[in-house]
Amino acid sequence: MNQPPPPSPPSTPPPERPEDCQSEVVTPVKEGWRWSALLGVLGLVMVCFIGTTVAVFVDIEAAYFEVEVTVPPGLRPVASHMAATTLAIDGQGRAVIWGYRGHGISGTGVDSVADDAAASVVALPEGRRIVLLTGGTQDGDEVSDYSYVVALDDLGQIWTWGCGTEKTSTDYMCGRTISAAAPRNKPGRVDLPDRVVDLKASTPTTVVLTAGGEVWTWGNDYHGSAGVGYDAIGTPPRRILTGIHSIGTGYWAGWAVAASGWTYTTYKGTTFTSDPQPQGGLLFWGWQSTGQSGGPAGDGRSAGYYYTPSLVKDDSELSKALAAGTAAGDDNVTLGVRAGSPDDKGTFQQMTGSFYGNQFRLRDGSVFLWGSRSNYAAGTDASTGSISAYLAQHVTLQHLGLSVSVVQIATTVNLIFLLDSTGTVWMYGQRNGSPNYPDANGAYQSTSASDVRLPMRIDGGAAHPAWKAGDIVDIVGMGYTVAVRHANGAIWMVGKNTHCLVRDDIWSNTCNTSDQPPVKVDYY
User: In 372-515, at which residue ranges do the beta strands (DSSP E only) sit?
Assistant: First the structure.
């Protein structure tokens, strides 16, 4: 069969430009307590007071430290599989980016920005606002030439930039044609035939869900992460699934909740095959590994590369949970729903993965955790396991003695954080040899700290306010770094700082990434 024709551009007209100081690229300049942005030929100046900044260094090595960042109102860091770059969305729907910004990642029209330079601020053309933002690299645990940023705007359209070092006309990581008029170092639109409702990244691959329930992927099909049916260096935007309710991604894997009658499309060269499937359920694709990624199936099947979306086995705990939700009346077969949004009535509200394991959050606040037990990614007290490492373990925090539910999961390369309904964080995973992370009291441990098999409750209290129980409303991970947002708007970051991710002032042109003896400076 011939390959489907390329999608036509969306017919929805662009919105009128809002009068809220939008511009394509805005570079903040620190001026004491304020910053200003030049608005093109209009010559208007917007001044926003951002307050003071406070640096905190507590019994740590200088390469790994914690800071509080007070920034323009509404700044929200987002989860990504980028090892050395922080992505955030500000109150005006723009991307704010700091840390590593080579290969056009800054989106400001230049190929490279110094790690210690002030944060880059990027607004989409025509006043469109970013509502979802993420990105990835080839491996997710290191800086790679194959890095990209992808954004969803308020019209349901996709924009990309960065996308590696290739200088050819078409770049698979960007999913669009690269030209002088649409360079890789500025946002360019990816044309899809329907409005996009959800956006995910599995390290080298972009996965999106449309309002009509179609799943499109593009990028590097590393070990099947694009789900197109074969292992490819790169694949352009292709529709791989129809009849889909919601999606999620891990490191080299993807998931989709499918209604009965769903179809998958596999590609090979210039031919493709679509096959309708009568039975709905949970689909997975990607790297089913005994170590890295922990295997996306969660049902005990053997290791390998699954290039085509496959159903998780009916007798698995994941499938049973999904079926029970359907029997109870959950609307988990409605098509085209962003997982965890108010419209999502399905069983699995969040489907995500760390480097060595995977994590699902259910509507009732319980979680499924599974992965490599030898890398402390399964969330259990078992220390070994090969095939059994793939078996999903149903875990509730009630099992640990508290009547609370999980409302958010955040993953770094090797640690998993669970935010519960009381605003308290739990943590488990591989901590030995990693960037410094807190103990149960929020105090920082050296890189020789013991690993954590079962979720450990963290309460920093007044002594370590970054982890004060009850204050936290949002937590996201990227690479070896985690960002915590409090109810008062303060953002705390902790983790590896090789590329100036963790700094007290993202608008300054200085940061400290050198190794120093442990220091303790009381700024609380």
Answer: 393-395, 406-411, 415-420, 425-429, 452-458, 472-478, 481-486, 491-496
Residue type for position 230: Y
Instruction: Report the C-alpha gap between 100 and 238 in whole angstroms.
Output: 29
152: enclosing H helix or E strand:
strand 147-153
Alpha-carbon gap, residue 268 to 286, rounded angstroms: 17
**Residue at token pair 């998931």:** 255
Main-chain dihedrals φ then ψ at residue 84, nearest 5 degrees:
-140, 20
* CA distance linking residue 380 with residue 225, whole number of Å: 27
Q: Are 109 and 185 in contact (CB under 8 A)?
A: yes
Q: Which two tokens stand for residue 216?
A: 């499109």
Residues 284 and 254 sit within 8 Å (Cβ to Cβ): yes
CB contact at 8 A, 135 and 201: yes
Per-residue pLDDT reduced to its tens digit, 409-468:
999 988 999 999 999 999 998 876 655 677 888 777 666 678 888 888 999 888 888 889
Two tokens, residue 308: 């085509």
Contact 190, 160 (CB under 8 A): yes
The Cα 514–Cα 5 span in angstroms is 52
* Contact between residue 239 and residue 214 where contact means Cβ atoms under 8 Å apart: yes
d(CA 48, CA 229) in angstroms, rounded, equals: 50
Hunting for tokens 């220390």 — which residue is that?
383
Q: Which residue type occupies 284?
A: F
The first and second tokens of residue 271, run together, are 């031919």
pTM to 2 decimals?
A: 0.84
- What is the layout of strands, in order, in the sheet containing 188-190? 130-137, 147-153, 158-162, 188-190
Condensed to tens digits (0 to 9), the pLDDT of residues 212-241 reads 999 999 998 778 889 988 777 778 999 999
Task: For residue 493, give both structure tokens.
Answer: 């970051």
Strand partners, 263: 242, 276
Instruction: Name the residue among 182, 194, 178 with its Cα closest to residue 9.
Output: 194
Amino acid at 185: N
Q: Which residues contact 374 (CB under 8 A, 6 or more apart)?
A: 291, 383, 384, 385, 389
